[in-house]
Design a protein that fits this description.
single chain; 470 residues; alpha/beta; Rossmann fold; pyruvate-formate lyase- activating enzyme; 7-stranded parallel β-sheet; 6-stranded mixed β-sheet; 41% helix; binds cobalamin
Length: 470
Protein backbone atom coordinates (compact mmCIF):
# COMPACT_ATOMS: atom_id res chain seq x y z
CA UNK A 1 0.00 0.00 0.00
CA UNK A 2 1.23 3.49 -0.81
CA UNK A 3 2.55 5.20 2.31
CA UNK A 4 2.18 8.82 3.31
CA UNK A 5 4.03 10.50 6.13
CA UNK A 6 2.70 13.81 7.47
CA UNK A 7 5.16 15.92 9.45
CA UNK A 8 4.30 18.69 11.89
CA UNK A 9 7.19 21.15 11.63
CA UNK A 10 5.85 23.49 14.31
CA UNK A 11 8.13 23.52 17.35
CA UNK A 12 6.87 26.74 18.98
CA UNK A 13 5.82 26.05 22.56
CA UNK A 14 4.63 29.59 23.34
CA UNK A 15 2.10 30.65 24.47
CA UNK A 16 1.58 26.87 24.63
CA UNK A 17 2.09 23.99 22.22
CA UNK A 18 -0.78 23.72 19.74
CA UNK A 19 -1.68 20.30 18.35
CA UNK A 20 -1.51 19.76 14.56
CA UNK A 21 -5.27 19.79 13.98
CA UNK A 22 -4.98 20.20 10.19
CA UNK A 23 -2.66 17.20 9.80
CA UNK A 24 -4.97 15.02 11.89
CA UNK A 25 -7.92 16.01 9.70
CA UNK A 26 -5.93 15.27 6.55
CA UNK A 27 -4.96 11.87 7.94
CA UNK A 28 -8.63 11.06 8.47
CA UNK A 29 -9.25 11.60 4.75
CA UNK A 30 -6.13 9.85 3.50
CA UNK A 31 -6.21 6.71 5.58
CA UNK A 32 -9.16 5.27 3.68
CA UNK A 33 -6.92 4.56 0.73
CA UNK A 34 -3.37 4.89 1.99
CA UNK A 35 -1.19 3.94 4.92
CA UNK A 36 -0.71 7.15 6.87
CA UNK A 37 1.61 8.11 9.70
CA UNK A 38 2.09 11.44 11.49
CA UNK A 39 5.42 12.59 12.90
CA UNK A 40 4.91 15.32 15.48
CA UNK A 41 7.96 17.59 15.42
CA UNK A 42 6.62 19.58 18.37
CA UNK A 43 7.88 16.89 20.72
CA UNK A 44 10.24 15.07 18.38
CA UNK A 45 13.59 15.97 16.85
CA UNK A 46 15.55 15.53 13.62
CA UNK A 47 17.05 12.21 14.70
CA UNK A 48 13.60 10.86 15.56
CA UNK A 49 12.22 11.99 12.21
CA UNK A 50 15.09 10.45 10.25
CA UNK A 51 14.63 7.17 12.08
CA UNK A 52 10.89 7.27 11.45
CA UNK A 53 11.40 7.92 7.72
CA UNK A 54 13.89 5.06 7.42
CA UNK A 55 11.53 2.67 9.16
CA UNK A 56 8.24 3.73 7.60
CA UNK A 57 9.73 4.28 4.11
CA UNK A 58 7.01 6.65 2.85
CA UNK A 59 6.28 7.30 -0.83
CA UNK A 60 5.07 10.83 -0.10
CA UNK A 61 5.97 13.17 2.73
CA UNK A 62 3.73 16.10 3.55
CA UNK A 63 5.27 18.85 5.63
CA UNK A 64 2.88 21.16 7.40
CA UNK A 65 4.19 24.71 7.67
CA UNK A 66 2.16 26.69 10.19
CA UNK A 67 4.29 29.47 11.63
CA UNK A 68 6.49 31.71 9.50
CA UNK A 69 7.37 34.28 12.11
CA UNK A 70 6.13 35.51 15.46
CA UNK A 71 4.43 38.56 13.87
CA UNK A 72 5.71 40.71 16.73
CA UNK A 73 7.69 43.78 15.68
CA UNK A 74 9.61 44.05 18.94
CA UNK A 75 10.21 40.35 19.38
CA UNK A 76 10.58 38.90 15.88
CA UNK A 77 11.24 35.17 15.62
CA UNK A 78 11.64 33.65 12.16
CA UNK A 79 10.86 29.94 11.99
CA UNK A 80 11.48 28.99 8.36
CA UNK A 81 15.28 28.46 8.43
CA UNK A 82 14.99 26.08 11.37
CA UNK A 83 12.12 24.08 9.96
CA UNK A 84 14.03 23.54 6.72
CA UNK A 85 17.23 22.64 8.57
CA UNK A 86 15.57 20.40 11.15
CA UNK A 87 12.91 18.68 9.11
CA UNK A 88 12.91 19.12 5.33
CA UNK A 89 16.61 18.97 4.41
CA UNK A 90 17.52 15.93 6.55
CA UNK A 91 14.61 14.02 5.06
CA UNK A 92 15.58 14.98 1.49
CA UNK A 93 19.03 13.54 2.15
CA UNK A 94 17.77 10.07 3.07
CA UNK A 95 14.54 9.68 1.12
CA UNK A 96 13.43 9.89 -2.50
CA UNK A 97 9.79 10.37 -1.46
CA UNK A 98 7.89 13.17 -3.16
CA UNK A 99 7.72 16.18 -0.89
CA UNK A 100 4.44 18.08 -0.56
CA UNK A 101 4.05 21.28 1.43
CA UNK A 102 0.94 22.82 2.94
CA UNK A 103 -0.37 24.62 6.02
CA UNK A 104 -1.53 28.10 6.92
CA UNK A 105 1.91 29.73 6.92
CA UNK A 106 2.81 28.01 3.66
CA UNK A 107 -0.43 29.25 2.09
CA UNK A 108 0.60 32.88 2.65
CA UNK A 109 4.04 32.54 1.04
CA UNK A 110 3.58 29.47 -1.15
CA UNK A 111 5.67 30.53 -4.17
CA UNK A 112 8.70 31.62 -2.20
CA UNK A 113 8.60 28.60 0.11
CA UNK A 114 8.47 26.23 -2.86
CA UNK A 115 11.66 27.80 -4.14
CA UNK A 116 13.51 27.91 -0.83
CA UNK A 117 12.67 24.33 0.10
CA UNK A 118 12.88 22.69 -3.33
CA UNK A 119 9.65 20.81 -2.57
CA UNK A 120 7.92 18.85 -5.35
CA UNK A 121 4.37 20.04 -4.70
CA UNK A 122 2.59 22.61 -2.60
CA UNK A 123 -1.08 23.02 -1.78
CA UNK A 124 -2.51 26.38 -0.77
CA UNK A 125 -5.33 26.41 1.80
CA UNK A 126 -7.41 23.53 3.07
CA UNK A 127 -6.43 20.17 1.66
CA UNK A 128 -9.00 17.54 2.61
CA UNK A 129 -10.01 17.25 -1.06
CA UNK A 130 -6.85 18.41 -2.78
CA UNK A 131 -4.19 16.31 -1.03
CA UNK A 132 -5.91 12.96 -1.68
CA UNK A 133 -6.73 14.28 -5.17
CA UNK A 134 -3.09 15.06 -5.87
CA UNK A 135 -1.81 11.75 -4.54
CA UNK A 136 -4.47 9.80 -6.45
CA UNK A 137 -3.41 11.54 -9.66
CA UNK A 138 0.29 10.91 -9.03
CA UNK A 139 -0.44 7.28 -8.24
CA UNK A 140 -2.21 6.98 -11.58
CA UNK A 141 1.02 8.20 -13.13
CA UNK A 142 -0.36 11.55 -14.21
CA UNK A 143 1.99 14.47 -14.46
CA UNK A 144 0.16 17.38 -12.95
CA UNK A 145 0.73 21.06 -13.55
CA UNK A 146 0.51 24.13 -11.37
CA UNK A 147 -2.94 25.65 -11.08
CA UNK A 148 -4.97 27.61 -8.61
CA UNK A 149 -4.00 26.39 -5.12
CA UNK A 150 -1.60 23.74 -6.46
CA UNK A 151 2.07 24.43 -7.07
CA UNK A 152 4.42 22.07 -8.86
CA UNK A 153 8.20 22.39 -8.60
CA UNK A 154 9.50 24.76 -11.27
CA UNK A 155 10.50 22.96 -14.44
CA UNK A 156 8.66 19.73 -13.61
CA UNK A 157 5.19 20.84 -14.65
CA UNK A 158 3.22 18.15 -16.45
CA UNK A 159 0.15 18.49 -18.65
CA UNK A 160 -2.63 17.41 -16.30
CA UNK A 161 -4.75 20.15 -14.83
CA UNK A 162 -6.22 18.95 -11.55
CA UNK A 163 -9.64 20.23 -10.65
CA UNK A 164 -8.94 20.12 -6.97
CA UNK A 165 -8.96 23.80 -6.29
CA UNK A 166 -12.50 24.37 -5.13
CA UNK A 167 -12.84 25.17 -1.46
CA UNK A 168 -14.91 22.40 0.00
CA UNK A 169 -17.20 22.53 2.99
CA UNK A 170 -15.85 20.72 5.98
CA UNK A 171 -17.46 17.32 5.82
CA UNK A 172 -18.12 15.72 9.16
CA UNK A 173 -14.97 13.79 9.80
CA UNK A 174 -13.43 14.22 13.23
CA UNK A 175 -9.74 14.89 13.73
CA UNK A 176 -9.40 12.47 16.68
CA UNK A 177 -6.14 14.21 17.48
CA UNK A 178 -5.36 12.05 20.51
CA UNK A 179 -5.65 8.88 18.42
CA UNK A 180 -3.21 10.13 15.82
CA UNK A 181 -0.48 11.69 17.93
CA UNK A 182 0.64 11.55 21.55
CA UNK A 183 -1.72 14.14 23.01
CA UNK A 184 -0.50 13.93 26.62
CA UNK A 185 1.96 16.89 26.49
CA UNK A 186 -0.76 19.01 24.86
CA UNK A 187 -3.30 17.95 27.46
CA UNK A 188 -0.98 19.15 30.18
CA UNK A 189 -0.28 22.63 28.83
CA UNK A 190 -2.51 23.27 25.85
CA UNK A 191 -5.95 22.47 24.56
CA UNK A 192 -7.86 20.18 22.23
CA UNK A 193 -8.43 22.21 19.06
CA UNK A 194 -11.90 22.35 17.53
CA UNK A 195 -12.84 24.19 14.36
CA UNK A 196 -16.48 25.18 13.93
CA UNK A 197 -16.28 26.89 10.57
CA UNK A 198 -13.96 27.98 7.81
CA UNK A 199 -13.56 31.28 6.05
CA UNK A 200 -13.89 34.85 7.20
CA UNK A 201 -15.96 37.50 5.52
CA UNK A 202 -14.54 40.39 7.52
CA UNK A 203 -12.19 42.89 5.97
CA UNK A 204 -9.49 43.64 8.56
CA UNK A 205 -6.86 45.20 6.36
CA UNK A 206 -3.83 43.28 7.64
CA UNK A 207 -5.38 39.86 8.04
CA UNK A 208 -4.43 36.65 6.26
CA UNK A 209 -7.44 34.57 7.24
CA UNK A 210 -9.47 35.26 4.10
CA UNK A 211 -6.35 34.44 2.06
CA UNK A 212 -5.92 31.11 3.87
CA UNK A 213 -9.51 30.04 4.40
CA UNK A 214 -11.59 31.97 1.86
CA UNK A 215 -13.90 34.91 2.25
CA UNK A 216 -17.19 33.35 3.19
CA UNK A 217 -18.16 31.61 6.40
CA UNK A 218 -18.80 27.90 5.90
CA UNK A 219 -20.18 26.53 9.12
CA UNK A 220 -20.14 23.01 10.51
CA UNK A 221 -23.21 21.38 11.93
CA UNK A 222 -23.49 22.34 15.65
CA UNK A 223 -24.61 18.82 16.59
CA UNK A 224 -21.51 17.33 14.96
CA UNK A 225 -19.29 19.82 16.79
CA UNK A 226 -20.84 18.87 20.14
CA UNK A 227 -20.54 15.20 19.20
CA UNK A 228 -16.84 15.66 18.43
CA UNK A 229 -16.32 17.34 21.82
CA UNK A 230 -18.30 14.64 23.62
CA UNK A 231 -16.30 11.83 22.02
CA UNK A 232 -12.97 13.53 22.79
CA UNK A 233 -14.14 14.05 26.38
CA UNK A 234 -14.98 10.38 26.75
CA UNK A 235 -11.48 9.47 25.60
CA UNK A 236 -9.53 12.18 27.43
CA UNK A 237 -11.48 13.09 30.55
CA UNK A 238 -11.00 16.63 31.79
CA UNK A 239 -9.40 18.58 28.99
CA UNK A 240 -9.60 22.18 27.81
CA UNK A 241 -11.22 22.63 24.38
CA UNK A 242 -10.25 25.61 22.28
CA UNK A 243 -12.14 26.92 19.27
CA UNK A 244 -9.70 27.88 16.54
CA UNK A 245 -12.03 29.87 14.27
CA UNK A 246 -11.15 33.32 13.01
CA UNK A 247 -14.02 34.61 15.15
CA UNK A 248 -16.14 32.29 17.25
CA UNK A 249 -19.44 34.16 17.17
CA UNK A 250 -19.80 34.57 13.41
CA UNK A 251 -21.99 34.23 11.47
CA UNK A 252 -24.75 35.40 13.83
CA UNK A 253 -26.42 32.58 15.69
CA UNK A 254 -23.86 29.83 15.02
CA UNK A 255 -22.03 30.13 18.35
CA UNK A 256 -25.36 30.14 20.20
CA UNK A 257 -26.40 26.95 18.41
CA UNK A 258 -23.12 25.23 19.34
CA UNK A 259 -23.48 26.25 23.00
CA UNK A 260 -27.07 25.00 23.07
CA UNK A 261 -25.97 21.58 21.75
CA UNK A 262 -23.26 21.34 24.41
CA UNK A 263 -25.76 22.31 27.12
CA UNK A 264 -28.38 19.88 25.80
CA UNK A 265 -25.88 17.02 26.03
CA UNK A 266 -24.99 18.07 29.59
CA UNK A 267 -21.28 17.99 28.76
CA UNK A 268 -19.07 19.01 31.66
CA UNK A 269 -16.38 20.78 29.67
CA UNK A 270 -13.93 23.65 29.90
CA UNK A 271 -14.00 25.82 26.81
CA UNK A 272 -12.04 28.76 25.55
CA UNK A 273 -11.93 30.68 22.33
CA UNK A 274 -10.00 33.37 20.58
CA UNK A 275 -11.70 36.04 18.52
CA UNK A 276 -15.05 37.16 19.91
CA UNK A 277 -16.46 39.64 17.42
CA UNK A 278 -18.05 42.61 19.23
CA UNK A 279 -20.67 42.86 16.48
CA UNK A 280 -22.56 39.68 17.30
CA UNK A 281 -22.52 39.74 21.08
CA UNK A 282 -25.60 39.70 23.26
CA UNK A 283 -26.69 38.90 26.78
CA UNK A 284 -28.05 35.62 25.44
CA UNK A 285 -24.71 34.65 23.82
CA UNK A 286 -22.80 35.24 27.05
CA UNK A 287 -25.40 33.43 29.08
CA UNK A 288 -25.14 30.41 26.79
CA UNK A 289 -21.34 30.54 26.72
CA UNK A 290 -21.15 30.53 30.52
CA UNK A 291 -23.62 27.66 30.76
CA UNK A 292 -21.78 25.66 28.09
CA UNK A 293 -18.52 25.87 30.04
CA UNK A 294 -16.48 28.83 28.79
CA UNK A 295 -13.74 29.66 31.26
CA UNK A 296 -11.76 32.14 29.18
CA UNK A 297 -11.96 34.15 25.97
CA UNK A 298 -9.76 36.43 23.91
CA UNK A 299 -11.16 39.76 22.78
CA UNK A 300 -9.23 41.24 19.86
CA UNK A 301 -10.75 44.58 18.87
CA UNK A 302 -7.21 45.88 18.03
CA UNK A 303 -8.30 49.46 18.76
CA UNK A 304 -11.04 51.39 20.48
CA UNK A 305 -10.56 54.56 18.49
CA UNK A 306 -13.45 55.10 16.04
CA UNK A 307 -11.04 56.44 13.42
CA UNK A 308 -8.71 53.46 13.76
CA UNK A 309 -11.55 50.93 13.73
CA UNK A 310 -12.52 52.38 10.36
CA UNK A 311 -8.95 52.52 9.09
CA UNK A 312 -8.25 48.91 10.12
CA UNK A 313 -11.47 47.78 8.42
CA UNK A 314 -12.73 46.14 11.60
CA UNK A 315 -16.38 46.38 10.63
CA UNK A 316 -17.61 47.06 14.18
CA UNK A 317 -18.01 50.24 16.18
CA UNK A 318 -16.86 51.59 19.53
CA UNK A 319 -20.35 51.23 21.09
CA UNK A 320 -20.28 47.56 20.07
CA UNK A 321 -16.93 47.05 21.83
CA UNK A 322 -18.29 48.88 24.87
CA UNK A 323 -21.30 46.59 24.90
CA UNK A 324 -19.05 43.52 24.69
CA UNK A 325 -16.86 44.83 27.53
CA UNK A 326 -19.95 45.40 29.69
CA UNK A 327 -21.10 41.82 29.05
CA UNK A 328 -17.65 40.44 29.86
CA UNK A 329 -17.72 42.30 33.18
CA UNK A 330 -21.30 41.36 33.95
CA UNK A 331 -20.61 37.65 33.45
CA UNK A 332 -17.07 37.96 34.86
CA UNK A 333 -15.73 35.88 31.99
CA UNK A 334 -11.90 35.97 32.24
CA UNK A 335 -10.66 37.74 29.12
CA UNK A 336 -7.38 38.54 27.46
CA UNK A 337 -7.73 41.72 25.44
CA UNK A 338 -5.46 42.46 22.49
CA UNK A 339 -4.72 45.92 21.08
CA UNK A 340 -2.53 46.59 18.09
CA UNK A 341 -1.18 50.12 17.67
CA UNK A 342 0.44 51.84 14.71
CA UNK A 343 -1.98 51.11 11.87
CA UNK A 344 -2.62 53.65 9.10
CA UNK A 345 -3.65 56.95 10.72
CA UNK A 346 -2.64 56.08 14.29
CA UNK A 347 -1.59 59.18 16.22
CA UNK A 348 -1.44 60.33 19.84
CA UNK A 349 -5.13 61.16 19.88
CA UNK A 350 -6.28 57.77 18.55
CA UNK A 351 -3.87 56.02 20.93
CA UNK A 352 -5.35 57.91 23.88
CA UNK A 353 -8.89 57.04 22.76
CA UNK A 354 -8.02 53.36 23.11
CA UNK A 355 -6.37 53.89 26.49
CA UNK A 356 -9.45 55.77 27.64
CA UNK A 357 -11.57 52.77 26.68
CA UNK A 358 -9.24 50.42 28.57
CA UNK A 359 -9.53 52.56 31.69
CA UNK A 360 -13.28 52.95 31.55
CA UNK A 361 -14.48 49.56 30.34
CA UNK A 362 -12.02 46.73 30.92
CA UNK A 363 -12.22 44.70 34.10
CA UNK A 364 -8.89 45.37 35.91
CA UNK A 365 -8.71 41.64 36.71
CA UNK A 366 -8.35 41.00 32.97
CA UNK A 367 -5.21 41.23 30.90
CA UNK A 368 -4.60 43.86 28.24
CA UNK A 369 -1.89 42.96 25.76
CA UNK A 370 -0.49 45.84 23.72
CA UNK A 371 1.55 45.39 20.55
CA UNK A 372 2.62 47.74 17.81
CA UNK A 373 3.38 47.44 14.13
CA UNK A 374 1.25 45.51 11.65
CA UNK A 375 2.95 42.62 9.85
CA UNK A 376 2.59 43.27 6.12
CA UNK A 377 1.24 40.15 4.43
CA UNK A 378 0.92 39.54 0.70
CA UNK A 379 -2.61 39.67 -0.70
CA UNK A 380 -3.95 41.98 2.00
CA UNK A 381 -5.27 45.57 1.70
CA UNK A 382 -2.41 46.65 3.99
CA UNK A 383 0.08 45.48 1.38
CA UNK A 384 -1.49 47.98 -1.03
CA UNK A 385 -1.33 50.79 1.55
CA UNK A 386 2.32 49.95 2.26
CA UNK A 387 3.13 49.97 -1.46
CA UNK A 388 1.39 53.30 -1.93
CA UNK A 389 3.25 54.84 1.00
CA UNK A 390 6.47 53.21 -0.25
CA UNK A 391 6.97 51.32 3.00
CA UNK A 392 7.63 48.36 0.71
CA UNK A 393 8.73 48.24 -2.89
CA UNK A 394 6.99 46.39 -5.72
CA UNK A 395 8.32 42.82 -5.88
CA UNK A 396 9.98 43.02 -2.47
CA UNK A 397 9.87 39.78 -0.49
CA UNK A 398 7.43 39.97 2.41
CA UNK A 399 8.64 36.64 3.78
CA UNK A 400 12.01 37.65 5.17
CA UNK A 401 12.94 39.85 6.89
CA UNK A 402 9.49 40.27 8.48
CA UNK A 403 8.25 43.77 7.58
CA UNK A 404 5.89 45.81 9.74
CA UNK A 405 3.72 48.80 8.96
CA UNK A 406 3.87 51.81 11.29
CA UNK A 407 1.69 54.90 10.99
CA UNK A 408 3.29 57.96 9.44
CA UNK A 409 1.52 60.15 12.03
CA UNK A 410 3.48 59.06 15.09
CA UNK A 411 7.07 57.93 15.39
CA UNK A 412 7.78 54.36 16.40
CA UNK A 413 9.74 55.62 19.40
CA UNK A 414 6.94 57.87 20.59
CA UNK A 415 4.41 55.07 20.22
CA UNK A 416 6.63 52.77 22.20
CA UNK A 417 7.11 55.40 24.89
CA UNK A 418 3.35 55.86 25.22
CA UNK A 419 2.80 52.11 25.45
CA UNK A 420 5.45 51.85 28.16
CA UNK A 421 3.79 54.69 30.09
CA UNK A 422 0.45 52.90 29.96
CA UNK A 423 1.87 49.55 31.05
CA UNK A 424 3.98 51.01 33.85
CA UNK A 425 0.93 52.66 35.43
CA UNK A 426 -1.51 49.77 35.08
CA UNK A 427 -0.87 46.34 36.55
CA UNK A 428 -3.01 44.60 33.91
CA UNK A 429 -1.49 46.21 30.79
CA UNK A 430 1.39 44.27 29.25
CA UNK A 431 3.72 45.66 26.59
CA UNK A 432 4.48 43.05 23.94
CA UNK A 433 8.23 43.43 24.50
CA UNK A 434 7.81 42.23 28.06
CA UNK A 435 9.25 38.77 28.54
CA UNK A 436 7.19 35.90 29.86
CA UNK A 437 6.82 35.61 33.66
CA UNK A 438 9.97 34.44 35.46
CA UNK A 439 10.06 30.91 36.95
CA UNK A 440 10.01 32.54 40.42
CA UNK A 441 6.83 34.45 39.57
CA UNK A 442 5.24 31.28 38.20
CA UNK A 443 6.15 29.46 41.42
CA UNK A 444 4.67 32.23 43.51
CA UNK A 445 1.52 32.11 41.40
CA UNK A 446 1.20 28.35 41.92
CA UNK A 447 1.58 28.88 45.68
CA UNK A 448 -1.11 31.55 45.71
CA UNK A 449 -3.46 29.34 43.69
CA UNK A 450 -3.01 26.52 46.21
CA UNK A 451 -3.43 28.82 49.22
CA UNK A 452 -6.56 30.53 47.96
CA UNK A 453 -7.85 27.46 46.13
CA UNK A 454 -8.03 29.41 42.86
CA UNK A 455 -9.04 27.75 39.63
CA UNK A 456 -9.09 30.92 37.55
CA UNK A 457 -6.94 31.16 34.38
CA UNK A 458 -3.24 31.54 35.21
CA UNK A 459 -3.12 35.05 33.71
CA UNK A 460 -5.51 36.29 36.38
CA UNK A 461 -3.33 34.90 39.18
CA UNK A 462 -0.24 36.49 37.62
CA UNK A 463 -2.11 39.80 37.47
CA UNK A 464 -2.88 39.53 41.18
CA UNK A 465 0.88 39.31 41.82
CA UNK A 466 1.62 42.23 39.49
CA UNK A 467 -1.02 44.29 41.28
CA UNK A 468 0.60 43.56 44.62
CA UNK A 469 4.03 44.49 43.25
CA UNK A 470 2.90 47.86 41.76
C1 LIG B 1 -6.24 29.30 16.13
C2 LIG B 1 -4.92 29.98 15.86
C3 LIG B 1 -4.07 30.20 16.94
C4 LIG B 1 -4.40 29.75 18.37
C5 LIG B 1 -4.13 28.24 18.45
C6 LIG B 1 -5.05 27.54 19.41
C7 LIG B 1 -4.95 26.05 19.31
N1 LIG B 1 -5.25 25.42 20.41
O1 LIG B 1 -4.66 25.46 18.28
C8 LIG B 1 -3.40 30.61 19.20
C9 LIG B 1 -4.10 31.92 19.59
C10 LIG B 1 -2.85 29.97 20.47
C11 LIG B 1 -2.34 30.92 18.16
C12 LIG B 1 -1.04 31.24 18.47
C13 LIG B 1 -0.08 31.53 17.51
N2 LIG B 1 -0.29 31.78 16.20
CO1 LIG B 1 -1.95 31.36 15.31
N3 LIG B 1 -3.46 30.99 14.27
C14 LIG B 1 -4.58 30.38 14.54
C15 LIG B 1 -5.46 30.31 13.28
C16 LIG B 1 -6.58 31.35 13.40
C17 LIG B 1 -6.10 28.96 12.98
C18 LIG B 1 -5.18 27.75 12.99
C19 LIG B 1 -6.00 26.49 12.90
O2 LIG B 1 -6.08 25.74 13.85
N4 LIG B 1 -6.66 26.22 11.74
C20 LIG B 1 -7.53 25.10 11.53
C21 LIG B 1 -6.79 23.87 10.92
C22 LIG B 1 -7.78 22.79 10.57
O3 LIG B 1 -6.19 24.30 9.72
P1 LIG B 1 -4.66 24.05 9.38
O4 LIG B 1 -3.92 23.49 10.53
O5 LIG B 1 -4.13 25.26 8.75
O6 LIG B 1 -4.71 22.87 8.30
C23 LIG B 1 -5.36 22.94 7.06
C24 LIG B 1 -4.55 23.57 5.92
O7 LIG B 1 -3.61 24.53 6.34
C25 LIG B 1 -3.93 22.41 5.20
N5 LIG B 1 -2.67 21.84 5.71
C26 LIG B 1 -2.14 21.86 6.94
N6 LIG B 1 -1.00 21.13 6.97
C27 LIG B 1 -0.80 20.65 5.74
C28 LIG B 1 0.22 19.84 5.22
C29 LIG B 1 0.15 19.48 3.88
C30 LIG B 1 1.22 18.62 3.32
C31 LIG B 1 -0.91 19.94 3.06
C32 LIG B 1 -0.94 19.59 1.61
C33 LIG B 1 -1.91 20.76 3.57
C34 LIG B 1 -1.85 21.09 4.91
O8 LIG B 1 -4.94 21.43 5.32
C35 LIG B 1 -5.49 21.48 6.64
C36 LIG B 1 -6.90 20.98 6.63
O9 LIG B 1 -7.68 21.69 5.70
C37 LIG B 1 -4.43 30.69 12.16
C38 LIG B 1 -4.99 31.50 11.00
C39 LIG B 1 -5.71 30.62 10.02
N7 LIG B 1 -6.87 31.04 9.65
O10 LIG B 1 -5.21 29.59 9.62
C40 LIG B 1 -3.37 31.50 12.93
C41 LIG B 1 -1.93 31.41 12.47
C42 LIG B 1 -1.59 29.97 12.13
N8 LIG B 1 -1.17 31.79 13.65
C43 LIG B 1 -0.09 32.44 13.37
C44 LIG B 1 0.90 32.82 14.34
C45 LIG B 1 2.04 33.67 13.84
C46 LIG B 1 0.80 32.42 15.67
C47 LIG B 1 1.82 32.70 16.79
C48 LIG B 1 3.28 32.52 16.42
C49 LIG B 1 1.54 34.13 17.32
C50 LIG B 1 2.40 34.49 18.50
N9 LIG B 1 3.42 35.28 18.28
O11 LIG B 1 2.13 34.05 19.59
C51 LIG B 1 1.36 31.69 17.87
C52 LIG B 1 2.08 30.35 17.76
C53 LIG B 1 1.49 29.28 18.65
C54 LIG B 1 2.17 27.94 18.51
N10 LIG B 1 2.46 27.31 19.63
O12 LIG B 1 2.46 27.50 17.42
C55 LIG B 1 0.03 32.72 11.88
C56 LIG B 1 1.09 31.83 11.18
C57 LIG B 1 1.67 32.46 9.94
C58 LIG B 1 2.69 33.49 10.30
N11 LIG B 1 2.38 34.74 10.13
O13 LIG B 1 3.75 33.15 10.74
C59 LIG B 1 -1.44 32.45 11.39
C60 LIG B 1 -1.58 31.91 9.98
C61 LIG B 1 -2.20 33.80 11.53
C62 LIG B 1 -1.52 34.91 10.81
N12 LIG B 1 -1.09 35.92 11.50
O14 LIG B 1 -1.35 34.91 9.62
N13 LIG B 1 -2.84 30.79 16.89
Amino acid sequence: MTKILLVNTNTEKLPYPVPPLGLCLLASWLDERYEVSIYDGMFGDTAGLVEHVLQFAPDYIGFSIRNIDSTMSDNPVYYVDDLIAQFIRPVREISAAKIILGGSGFSIYAGELMEITGADYGIIGEAEASLPGLIDALERGEEVRSGRNLLVKAGTDGKKVLHITERMMIKERFSEIDRRIDFSPYKQRGAYAIQTKRGCSHGCIYCTYPVIEGRTFRTRNPAAIAEEIEQACERLGDVMFEFVDSTFNDPAGHAEAICREIIRRKLKVRLRTMGINPMNTSEELFHLMMEAGFVQIDATPDSASPAMLASLGKGFTLPEIEKMAALIRKFDLPTMWFFLFGGPGENERTFNETVDFIDRHINPADLVYMASGLRIYPGTPLEKVALKEQVILPGESLLYPPLFYFSKEISRDRLNEMMLDVSSLRHNCIHSAETKPSPEMMQEAQKLRAELNLNEPMFRTLLRLRKKAK
